[in-house]
């Protein structure tokens, strides 16, 4: 699928959101309940994944262990980054230069940030 194609009647950005929710579900056993992907200029996209924490992570936050949630999510990102990059490159037909993921454990929001190679 290229950036100009529409997948199953939805926009490419909506397809990215759906794919990232599916990947979270596959890798964490549960996906976020809301997701939205937006362009951030010409060469970046940001996906906001809400209600993304696992029940155990929510318990850890309640215990004051927010840092451990952020730390474990950082390790998960390192282990799964290739899959998250691959799916976005395929859907948007853009080469990813940089991928970052951040977790706000208090808000339960994960933010996935993609920076693409500039277009020629």
Secondary structure elements and pairings:
Layout: H1 12-28, E1 34-39, E2 44-50, H2 55-62, H3 66-92, E3 96-104, E4 109-116
Antiparallel strand pairs: 1-2, 2-4, 3-4
Short description:
With 120 residues, this protein is of the alpha+beta class. Helices cover 43% and strands 25% of the residues.
Oligomeric state of shown chains: single chain
* Widest beta sheet: strand line-up: 1-2-4-3
N/C terminus separation = 20 Å
Principal-axis shape: globular
**Rounded Rg:** 15 Å
- Helices, by number, come to 3
Question: What report would you give on this structure?
Answer:
By secondary structure, this protein is of the alpha+beta class. It has one domain (12-116). It is built from 3 helices and 4 strands, in the order αββααββ. Strands 1-2-4-3 form a 4-stranded antiparallel sheet. Helix 1 crosses helix 3 (66-92) and helix 2 (55-62) packs antiparallel against helix 3 (66-92). The protein is globular and about 50 Å long. The two termini are 20 Å apart.
Descriptors for this entry?
3 helices; 120 residues
């Amino acid at each position: 699928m290229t950036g100009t194609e529409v997948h199953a009647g939805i926009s490419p950005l909506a397809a990215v959101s759906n794919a990232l929710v599916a990947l979270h579900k596959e890798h964490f056993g549960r996906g976020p309940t809301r997701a939205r992907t937006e362009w951030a200029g010409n060469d970046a996209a940001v996906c906001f994944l809400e209600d993304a924490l696992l029940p155990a992570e929510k318990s850890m936050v309640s215990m004051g262990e927010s840092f451990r949630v952020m730390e474990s999510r950082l390790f998960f990102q390192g282990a799964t980054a290739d899959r998250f990059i691959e799916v976005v490159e395929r859907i948007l037909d853009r080469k990813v230069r940089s991928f970052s993921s951040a977790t706000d454990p208090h808000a339960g929001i994960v933010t996935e940030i993609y920076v693409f190679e500039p277009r020629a």
